[in-house]
Amino acid sequence: MVEERMGDCWSYTKDQFDNLEKHTQWGIEFVEKYTKFVKERSEIETNYAKQIRNLSKKYQPKKNSREEEESKYTFCRAFLMTLNELNDYAGQHEVIAENLTSQIIADLTRYLGELKSERKSHFHDGRKAQQHIESSWKQLESCKRRFERDCKEADRAQQYFEKMDADINVTKADVEKARQQAQMRHQMATDSKGDYSSYLQKFNQEQNEHYYTVIPNIFQKLQDMEERRIERIGVCMKTFADVDRQVLPIVGKCLDGMTKAAESIEPKTDSKQVVESYKSGFEPPGDVEFEDYGQAMKRTASDTSLSNSRDGKEKPAGKTKGKLWPFIKNKNKGSGPEDFSHLPPEQRRKKLQGKLDELNKDIQKETDQRDALTKMKDVYVKNPQMGDPASVDPRLSEIGQNIEKLQFEVQKFEGWLAEVEERMPSKSDSHRRSGLYETQNNTTVSNNCAQDRESPDGSYTEEQNSETQVKANPAPAPGPAPNPTSSTPEFDDEFDDEETLPTIGTCKALYPFEGHNEGTISVAEGELLYVIEEDKGDGWTRVRRNEDEEGYVPTSYVEVFLETNAKGAMTYI
What are the SH3 domain coordinates in residue numbering (predicted)? Predict the structure, then answer.
């Protein structure tokens, strides 16, 4: 019975170890599966970020004139801002992939190695303890069988002695021999009994320690190991969510940037930019005169009508197919002639001015190189050991030739620009007619309320309703100021014996003006002054610095802001 009970216990313990071994192995496989899951998620984030970056890069503006032309529109700039924000957005997904790799994948990979090693150690200790108790049981059984055998042998020896002692035919020597044999067997049985008793006590202690200390400790270690594994999985799952949460503020800023870019689009500004880009500068044609066929006279066409034939030949009536200038198609494709003569006046002026700016930049660049080489040559002259001064001369000569060529080009384009500006309509021309105009006070505006003003680039000046604002849009460099002695009366006479005029607005100097002529006042670039009399069509605006200093400045040199109640304003469309 004892043997059966011990066998059942050992079998039960072995089964428990087998169950725990299967469960812990399944736990390790689960950690490996979760690690693979996070790794695949990291790869998805990396690929997604790569695709987003490629998309942003694909639609980035190319380095060509067409893209540079588009960059002046607000919706194009907004799209560029969106692409940049999208690129930053892709960077946050890269951060997610990096954090998943460093905070979860690497940690779980290292932990898996530790977990496998710890599990192996615990089961090794369990198997060792189980083998030890089984070995002790076998030794106990061996002692028990030996004690049993010795007892039987002692009984047989005693019975033989008693038989020999009762037999009268046996000699005394044989009886003594049987008695000694019985005593020896009895002593062996006594020794076996002591060994069996001692080993039994030892086994019971080891068995008690095995089932109440060793095995429970091993099971507890396995339980602790399993709990740490489950806890580590929970921490990794929390980190999995935190990695996404950490980038949400920056992702939100990227989305806010996209929203801000969309809100920065200004349709009116873009439409005005289109008008400014394609403004021709043509003067509208004059009225078509009445042709009286009742008199024997030739038809006299309007001098400013563009429907006239260029060669001056009269065309038959009813077959004239002239078109007004806004609807004439430009048949000159490609780059066109060097002087841009194929373009309308205003567009030609802008192209020529842009070409002049490029040439001036090139001249400045060549001049800087020449100055640097000149300094180098001076150093070589003073310190011959540093280099040969003559080695710089070929390059200086080449730069000098380049500067001469560029200066010749500048003169050529300046001549064309002057020719265009002379042909463009000026303030002395007839007043432009418009079918639509706005008045600030909703009343008839007098002639001196809104002069036919043009900024130096030939565009009309707009005056807003809420705050009457007159902006002179000067060319990149202002031309000479009007001669005050010829275009205005004597300024000194206007200042004599008159009351102090009230201010009607303010102005900001766009360029410095020295004011050498009598009646003018010198101003510095960026200086703020009070306007006391607006331009009456002569190109001069009267301003005041303080109570004692006032005078005239060129209207094209200042940016004027008239007060709302100063005057009515007329806007030409």
Answer: 502-563
Is the predicted pLDDT of residue 146 greater than 80, yes or no?
yes
| Ramachandran angles phi, psi of 296, nearest 5° | -80, 80
243 to each of 42, 52, 82, 240, 255, how far by Cα in Å? Answer: 11, 20, 25, 6, 19
pTM higher than the cut 0.70:
no
Encode 204-218: b = buried (16+ Cβ within 10 Å), e = exposed. Answer: eebbeebeeebbeeb
Contact 188, 154 (CB under 8 A): yes
Q: Is the pLDDT of residue 172 over 60?
A: yes
pLDDT band with cut points at 50, 70 and 90 for residue 470: very low
Nearest to 39 by CA among 317, 240, 234, 214: 240
Here the tokens at position 444 are 């008839």
Instruction: Answer whether 334's CB lies under 8 Å from 347's CB.
Output: no
- pLDDT, residue 133, reads 87
Return d(Cα 119, Cα 117) in angstroms, integer. 6
pLDDT tens readout for residues 193-216: 888 888 899 889 888 888 899 889
Return the axis-axis angle of helices 74-100 and 267-278, rounded to nearest 10°: 130
Task: Specify whether the CB–CB gap between 514 and 522 falls below 8 A.
Answer: yes
End-to-end CA distance of the chain: 118
Strand partners, 554: 540
Residue 269 amino acid letter: T
Beta bridge partners of 562: 505
3-state secondary structure of 523: strand
Output the average pLDDT for the chain.
77
* CA nearest to 175, candidates 163, 190, 165, 160: 165
How many Å apart are CA 454 and CA 281, to the nearest integer? 11
Sign of CA dihedral 80, 83, 87, 93: positive
Q: What is the pLDDT of residues 432-447, one digit of tens each?
A: 433 333 333 333 333 3
d(CA 507, CA 94): 53
Task: Please spell the DSSP secondary structure of 321-383, one letter per residue.
Answer: ----GGG------SS--TT-TTS-HHHHHHHHHHHHHHHHHHHHHHHHHHHHHHHHHHHHHH-
E strand or H helix that includes residue 161:
helix 106-166
- Please say whether the beta carbons of 537 and 486 come within 8 A: no
In the numeric block, which tokens belong to residue 402?
């380049």
pLDDT by residue (tens digit) across 29-85? 999 999 999 999 999 999 999 999 999 999 988 777 566 677 788 999 999 999 999
Distance, CA of 149 to CA of 142 (rounded, Å): 11
Is the per-residue pLDDT at 381 higher than 90?
no
**Identity of the residue numbered 54:** N
pLDDT band of residue 281 (cuts 50, 70, 90) is low
> Are 10 and 130 contacting, i.e. CB atoms less than 8 angstroms apart?
yes
